[in-house]
Amino acid sequence: MPSEYATRNVDLDVNVTVRSTLNQSYYFTNGLRLFAEEGRSFSFDNRGTGYGRGEGCGMVVLKPLDQALKDNDTIRAVIAGSGINQDGKTPGITMPSGEAQGEYLTHVT
């Protein structure tokens, strides 16, 4: 079963997004002897014998600021704006358009 984002678009006072990196391919890749004997990676080091896997789960809870203040919740961050854009044609996926990114920022801030 592949990991997937779990999000629901419903009218609630709280929005919860969960991401899991649990992966059943561990059993297959373990047989290939790709994992480090120590259970961790030593990148660019002569102690390296493979790579160390990390799996887990994270969750983000989004709530309107006024409700979080009313509920006396611990507030770690406030989302001041959001948006979505597309850079158009660029030399590569790791080279976004600076012009498009700048224009995007003027619309969401």
Mean pLDDT: 75
Alpha-carbon distance between the two ends: 39 Å
Order of helices and strands: EHEHH
Structural class: alpha+beta
Judging from the principal axes of the Cα atoms, what is the shape?
flat
Q: Percent of residues in helical segments?
A: 10-25%
Describe the structure.
- By secondary structure, the chain is α+β, with helices and mostly antiparallel strands.
- The protein has a domain of 27 residues.
- 21% of the residues lie in helices and 11% in strands.
- The chain contains three helices and two strands.
- Strands 1-2 form a two-stranded antiparallel sheet.
- The radius of gyration is 21 Å and the shape is flat.
Sum this structure up briefly.
By secondary structure, this protein is of the alpha+beta class.
Which properties best describe this structure?
11% strand; alpha+beta
Write the layout of secondary structure elements.
Blueprint: E1 15-20, H1 26-31, E2 57-62, H2 65-70, H3 98-108
Antiparallel strand pairs: 1-2
